[in-house]
């Protein structure tokens, strides 16, 4: 389809339950929705997408990913223990072998997967603990290349520790000078709690000075004494960074004393720090030192939401030193989050869908996100009637729309049957009752 041609999406169901909706996109923006769109004469040369009653959602957004490591599984070997620390060591073995071209090729291949899955915005951390900044240069080039079809935001990530790794602070500043968007950190990997807290202070002050957002890997451990989110919330308030700071993982909160957690939750809410949980990775990497019973390790998602904190989910890893699975499916992420947090109520399921759409868009600060008049005409048509059904089925992405143009299509999921007295084909959707 031509990117500049008007697009009419007809007979869509929206996430809020409105059915039979028409969406009109002009010049890459949503010009009208619902009765207003239906009342307008069809623009000349309009492209037509019949949604056939399926769910039209704003696109998926991944609030936490590592595009420099993705699709490198098996290079130079696999993670035998499956732990976070062996993953970091393995990444260290791979780094000297990387080339800018190989990083870019794998990242672009992943972006193809993402678009096909209706995932049109990714915040990716990029390791800056390499004096050559190969990954930074590669991903900045990828960011420019994919910009027409995918919003890529980069976080300068000192994987080996800001203070623990010689040259990390200078490299991080160089990465920001080259155009990386967000300041990252990893306080729990510094040598001491005090050094971790110091790294948080340095990085938040750098963000304040440069006017940039912050997104730190924070307390990604099973240690109930890890307290870096408290420090991050403190400096966020002290420096007036409210709304611009994200704490990623916060898995230690899973293991914290409940009294302390009850003090911490309002502090996070007060500071307006966003939280990103990474369910697939948290359930895989946390609790590795436990005998039975084993902890799940994901942060306290329902409690954070109830306290008024914006919580998103990220995929974190796909086929890399930490995780050998995944295919850019944010519905798989939502499903795992739902199970881990036992968010099985209707509200909980909706919140998990929001965690990979609107809440994640809020973390990235995406302008014009959402199915609203004047917003960007970005959407994904799912073979499901409701967000809950989309999660249950990891629904097919029947069409993906970017800037008013269809950029990907997927065949509906169905199966042929040869059973006596039964239909000749089957799909797995069910009409909602009523
Ligand atoms: Fe991460």
Would you give an account of this structure?
The protein has 2 domains: 7-58 and 370-409, Urease, subunit C, domain 1 (Roll), CATH 2.30.40; 60-364, TIM Barrel (Alpha-Beta Barrel), CATH 3.20.20. Helix 7 (228-238) packs parallel to helix 9, helix 12 (330-340) packs across helix 13 (346-355) and helix 12 (330-340) crosses helix 15. It contains 15 helices and 18 strands. With 434 residues, the protein is an alpha/beta fold. Helix 6 (193-210) links the parallel strand 9 (182-185) and strand 10. It has an 8-stranded parallel β-sheet, with helices on both faces. It has a 4-stranded mixed β-sheet with strand order 3-2-1-4. It has a 4-stranded antiparallel β-sheet with strand order 5-14-15-16, with no helix packed on it. It binds fe (ii) ion. Fe (ii) ion is lined by residues 64, 66, 125, 217, 316.
Give a brief description.
With 434 residues, this protein is of the alpha/beta class.
| Helix content estimate | 25-40%
The CATH homologous superfamily of the largest domain corresponds to: Metal-dependent hydrolases
Distance between the termini: 37 Å
Computed over alpha carbons, the radius of gyration is: 22 Å
Q: Total domains, how many?
A: 2
With strands numbered from the N-terminus, the spatial order across the biggest sheet is 6-7-8-9-10-11-12-13
Outline the biggest β-sheet. 8 strands, parallel
Coarse shape: globular
Low-pLDDT residue intervals, each spanning 5 or more residues: none
Number of helices: 15
Bound molecules: fe (ii) ion
CATH class label of the largest domain: Alpha Beta
- Overall strand count: 18
Beta-strand percentage range: 15-25%
- At CATH level 3, the topology of the largest domain is TIM Barrel
CATH architecture assignment of the largest domain: Alpha-Beta Barrel
* Structural class determined from secondary elements: alpha/beta
> What integer is the average pLDDT?
96
């Amino acid at each position: 389809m031509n990117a500049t041609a008007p697009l009419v999406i007809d007979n869509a169901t929206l996430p809020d339950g409105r059915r039979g909706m028409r969406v009109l996109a002009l010049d890459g923006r949503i010009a009208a929705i619902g009765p207003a769109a239906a009342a307008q004469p069809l623009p000349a040369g309009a492209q037509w997408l019949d949604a056939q009653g399926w769910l039209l959602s704003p696109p998926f957004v991944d609030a936490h990913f590592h595009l420099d490591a993705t699709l490198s599984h098996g290079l130079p070997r696999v993670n035998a223990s499956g732990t976070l620390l062996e993953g970091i060591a393995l990444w260290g073995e791979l780094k000297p072998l990387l080339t800018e071209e190989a990083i870019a090729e794998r990242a672009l291949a992943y972006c193809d997967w993402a678009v096909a899955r209706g995932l049109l915005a990714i915040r990716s951390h990029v390791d800056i603990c390499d004096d050559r900044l190969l990954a930074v240069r590669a991903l900045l080039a990828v960011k420019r290349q994919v910009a027409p079809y995918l919003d890529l935001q980069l976080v300068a990530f000192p994987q080996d520790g800001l203070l623990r790794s010689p040259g990390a602070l200078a490299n991080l500043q160089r990465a920001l000078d080259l155009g990386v968007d967000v300041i990252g950190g990893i306080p729990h990997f510094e040598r001491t709690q005090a050094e971790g807290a110091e790294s948080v202070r340095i990085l938040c002050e750098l963000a304040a000075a440069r006017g940039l957002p912050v997104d730190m890997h924070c307390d990604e451990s099973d240690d109930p004494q890890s307290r870096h989110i408290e420090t991050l919330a403190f400096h966020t308030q002290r420096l007036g960074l409210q709304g611009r700071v994200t704490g990623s993982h916060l898995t230690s909160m899973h293991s914290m004393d409940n009294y302390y957690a009850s003090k911490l939750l309002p502090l996070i809410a007060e500071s307006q720090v966003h939280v990103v949980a990474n369910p697939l990775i948290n359930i895989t990497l946390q609790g590795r030192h436990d005998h039975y019973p084993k902890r799940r390790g994901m942060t306290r998602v329902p409690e954070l939401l109830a306290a008024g904190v914006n919580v998103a989910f990220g995929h974190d890893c796909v086929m890399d030193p930490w995780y050998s699975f995944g295919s850019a499916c944010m519905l798989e992420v939502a499903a795992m989050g739902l199970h881990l947090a036992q968010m099985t109520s209707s509200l909980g399921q909706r919140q998990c869908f929001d965690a990979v759409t609107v809440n994640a868009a809020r973390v990235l600060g995406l302008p014009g996100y959402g199915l609203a008049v004047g917003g960007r005409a970005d959407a994904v048509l799912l073979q499901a009637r409701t967000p809950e059904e989309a999660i249950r089925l990891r629904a097919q992405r029947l069409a993906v729309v970017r800037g008013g143009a269809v950029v990907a299509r997927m065949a509906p999921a169905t199966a042929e049957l040869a059973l006596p007295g039964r239909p000749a084909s089957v799909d797995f959707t069910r009409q909602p009752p009523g």
